[in-house]
Amino acid sequence: MSVRFGVLGPLLVLDGATEVTPGPAKHRALLVALLMNAGRTVTHDRLVAAVWGAEPPASAEAVLRVYVSALRKIVEGIRTVPGGYLLAVDPDEVDAHRFERLVAQARRARDAGRARAAAEMLGQALGLWRGRALDGIDGELRRAHAVPLEELRLAALEERVALDLELGRGAEVIGELRALVSAYPLRERAWAQLMLALIQAGRRSEALAAYEEARGTLVAELGLEPGPELREAHERALAEESPRRVPNETPPDIADFTGRQAALGWIRAALPAPDAAPVHLVLYGPAGAGKSALAIHAARGLDLPDGRLHASLRDRTPGAVLEDLLRSLGCPDGAVPASLDERVRLYRSLVADRRVLVVLDDATSEAQVRPLLPTGAGSLTLVTSRSPLFGLEAARAYPLDVLEAEETVAMLARIVGAGRVAAEPGQALRIVRLCGALPLALRIAGSRLARRRGWTLEHLADRLGDERSRLDELSAGDLAVRSSLALGYRALSGDERLLLRRLGALSSPDFAPWIAAALVGPEGGRIMESLAEAGLLQERGLDRYGWHDLTRLYAAERLAEEEGPAAAVLAGAAGEILDRARRARELMLPAEPGSGLTLSHTVERDLATARLAESARWLAAERSFMVATVADLHRARLDEAAWRLAFYLTPLFELGAYHDDWRTTAALGLDAARRAGHRHGEALLLRSLADLHRAEGRLEEAAEALRAALPLTEQGEVARTTFRLGLVYRAQDRLPDAERCFTECLAAFGADPRGAADPRRVDLRGADPRRADLRAADLKGADLRGADPRGAADALRALGELRGDGELSRRALELYRQLGDPRGEAATLLDLAALSLAGRRTKEARQLAERAAGLSRRLGDVLPAAAAALLLAQVARAEGRPEAARTAAGEALAAFESHGDRRGRARAMLAIAAASLDLDEIDGAIDAVAGTMGEFDALGDRRGLAEAQELAREARRRRGLR
C-alpha cells in the first residue's frame, strides 16, 4: 500500500492506516516544500529558503543534507538530482494536488452540463480538507501555497453550493452556508446563496432577514451597498419565487461514517435513468453491520427530484407503514383509506408520476416490502434486511459484512480522535478485533471512549477482552449489540433458535452442515441454511458457514440461560466429531494397525491416491474447526474426547506444517490425558509432541519426550516410539544409535532377520537403544509379512536412507505399494532419487524425483512436492543446468515459506546460492547463503551448516580471484 500525504490541515503522513511522525519543524517544512512540488526538482536554494527563510545559516546546505537523510527514513522516494532534490511520488498521493485535480475536473463537468457529477467531484475535493492549509507551517511556504489553496477552497465550496441550488438541494446546504457567512461575512456570493437556499426551503422571511444582515455588515465594514448578485436574490425573495416543495425524510447522516466505497459505488451505479423502470436494491448482512447507516449515507448522496421517503419496518405491518408514507406524500389524515389494498392503490397512484427515493429499513420478509415499492419511472428503493430477500421480484441484493481493517481503525479515529488512536495503535487494533470489526460494536466502543477522556484504549480493550462481559461492555445509551442480536433471535423459529444456541457451545469461527446434524438431528443442515438466510450465519464457501464472534457470544449466553452448561451439548456431538476425525486419519495413514484399511496390491493405486487426497482436503477444510473443538472439549473437561481428537489430528498438522495448531492441540491433549489418568493417551500425545519438536529442530526435547513416553506406552506401540527415537538420533548425527533403534524396531514390527521370538512379545521398554548390542544384520532376505507391515516399511526405509542401501529402500517401496500407501511410496522414491544422484546417475535420479513430485502433487501434499522440487534442483545442477536448478529451488522456496518450514527454506536458499555461484553471480550467491548459516545453526543441523560454510568459503574465494 502506498504512502499518502496531507497538507490540507496539519502535515500528515499515512503509511496504510499508520500515521508517521515527520519530525521537528524544519523537517516538516522541507517535506512540505518537496510535496508541493511532487515529481518535480526543487533546487537547493528554494529548499534552503523554505526551511530557513531569507537569512539562512552559513552551514545551510550541509544541514539540509542531514535533514534529507532523516526524512528518507520515514518517506521513500526522495531522490538526489542535479541541482537539488525530487520527491518521486504520484501527485495524487498528496491531498493538495488531488484537490486541485478534482476541482478542475468538476469545472469541466459543469461546463459540459453534468451538474450532478460536478457537484459530487467538488464534494470529494472539499472532503479532503482537515483544517487550515499547511497548518503549523509558517513563512514563505505558507504565503506561497496556503493562501492560494484557501482561496480555491472557498471558490470550490461556492461552486458546489451553486450546483446544489441548481439541483434543488437548497434545504440541505442552509447550515453549511450559515457557517460560511459567519466565517467570511464580507463574501456577497455566500450571502446570496444562503438566501436562495432559504427560498428553496420555503423560508422566505428568513431569506429577507439574511439580506438585511448582509447589507448591514457591508455598509458598516466597507461603506458599500450590496452588489448585483445579492440584490437579485433579494428581489427573488420579495417575489417569493420558490420551487415546489418535496418530502425529504432521510435521517441525518452519521458523522463518523467510514469506508463502504464498493457498496456505495454499487448503489450509485444502479440509479435508474429518469425514464427507466424503478430499481429495488437490498442491502443485507448480520446485525450491527451498518446496513442502515450505509443506506442513509447513500440516500443523502442521491438526488431524485420528487423527494426522499424513509420508513423503519422491523415488526410493523405494511398497512401501518403505508399510512405514514401516504401522509408524507401529502394525503390528509382523513383521506387515508382503512384497508391495506386501498392504501396500496392510493400509494401507487401518488408515486406513479414521481421519481422518488424510498428507504425501507430493517425489513423482515418479502411480503412486508412488496406493497411499499414505488412504481414511478426512475425511482429507487433501498431496503436493508438481515436476509437477502431473494423472493423479492426484480430486486438486486448486496451482502454487507464487517468493515475492512483500515476502515475500522479510521472509523474509531473519527469517533475518539486521531490523536488517541495514534498514541495506542496496537490497542486500537485490539479493540477492532474484539469488536469483530462490526460497525455497531465499534461505534459503541468509540462512544464510550469519547465520553470518558480518562480511559486509555488499553483499558477498554482489557474490559472487552473478557468474553463473559463483552456484550455488557458493548452498550452505550440506546445502542447495544445484545439488543440488536436479540431482535434477530426472537424472529427465528424454535428449531432455528435451538441450533443457533447449541452452536454457541463451539468456539470455532466456521463449521460445516454435518456438525448441525450432530447438534440437533438430521434436519440440522437445512436449519443452518435458514440461519444463513436470516443473516445470523454467513456462507464461507461451498457447504461451510461462519458467524460473527459477537453472535457466537450471544448464542453461548442463550445456551447457558435456556439449556445449561455447554458440556452437555459437546458431549452429545463428540462421538460424531471423533468418528469423522478418526476416519480421515485412517485414510491419511493406510495400513496403520487397527485401521482396517490395509490394501492389497490389487487395489487400484489411483483410487488409493484419490482417497488419501480427499481425506487430506477434508481435514484441511475442517482444521480451524477441529483445533477450536479440542480447546472446547478440554475446557468442558471432556478429557477422553479431547486427547483422542488431538491425537487424530497429528498427521494433518505434520503434513501441512501447521506447527502452531499442532503445538496447541498436543499440549491440550496431553493435559487432558494426564487429567483423565490415561497412560496410553499420555504416551501418544508425548509422541506427537516429540514429532513436532523434531520437525522444528529441537532434537533434545524430542528425545526427552520419547523417553518419557516409553514407560507409558502399550506393548503394541513401543516399537513405534522407539522408531521415532531413531529418527531423532538420525537428525542428531548419532548414526550407530539410530541404526540400532531401526534394526530393533524392524524385528518388533515382524521382520526379524535373525529369527527372533514372536515380535508381538518383543518388549523394547526396558532396552536403551543407546546401549543395545545389536549387529547390523543383513535384512535383504527378511520376511516382512509380520504384525505391522507399515511399521516394517517405515523401518526399512529409514535403514535404507541411513545406510545408503538402495536394496532396502526398494524393498520398502515394494511394501508401501502393497499396502496402498502412496505417501510412503513418494517419500521412498525421493530417497532412491537421492541415492541415484549420489551415485552420479542423474537421469535415473531425475526420473525418480519427478515420479515422487507427481505423486505428491496428486495427493495435494505441498511440502513433499517442494522436497522433490529441491532434489530436482540438485539434479539440474549436477547436469550442468544452473538456471533450471535455480528455478526449481525457487519453486521449493515459495512452498516452504508459505508453510513456515524453516529447515526446508534454508535448504532451498542453499540450493539457490549454489546455482547462483555456478552462474558466476558471486554477490547473489553470498547474499543467499548468508541467511542460511544462522538458520541451520538454530535448527541444530550440523550438516546443513557445514554445507553452507563451505559454499560461503568458495564464493568468497571466487570473488577474491576477480
Automatic annotation (TrEMBL):
State the DNA-binding region(s). Answer: 1-89
Q: What is this protein called?
A: DNA-binding SARP family transcriptional activator
Which GO molecular function annotations are given, in alphabetical order? DNA binding
For this UniProt record, the keywords arranged alphabetically read as follows:
DNA-binding, Transcription, Transcription regulation
Q: Which PROSITE patterns match?
A: OMPR_PHOB (PS51755)
Domain OmpR/PhoB-type, chain residue ranges per copy? 1-89
Q: What is the source species?
A: Nonomuraea africana
The protein's matches in InterPro entries, at most eight in alphabetical order, are given as:
5peptide_repeat (IPR001646), AfsR-DnrI-RedD_regulator (IPR051677), BTAD (IPR005158), OmpR/PhoB-type_DNA-bd (IPR001867), P-loop_NTPase (IPR027417), Sig_transdc_resp-reg_C-effctor (IPR016032), TPR-like_helical_dom_sf (IPR011990), TPR_rpt (IPR019734)
Q: Which CDD domains match?
A: BTAD, trans_reg_C
What family does the Swiss-Prot or TrEMBL record give for this protein?
A: Belongs to the AfsR/DnrI/RedD regulatory family.
Pfam families linked: BTAD, Pentapeptide, Trans_reg_C
Taxonomy, top ranks, is:
Bacteria, Bacillati, Actinomycetota, Actinomycetes, Streptosporangiales
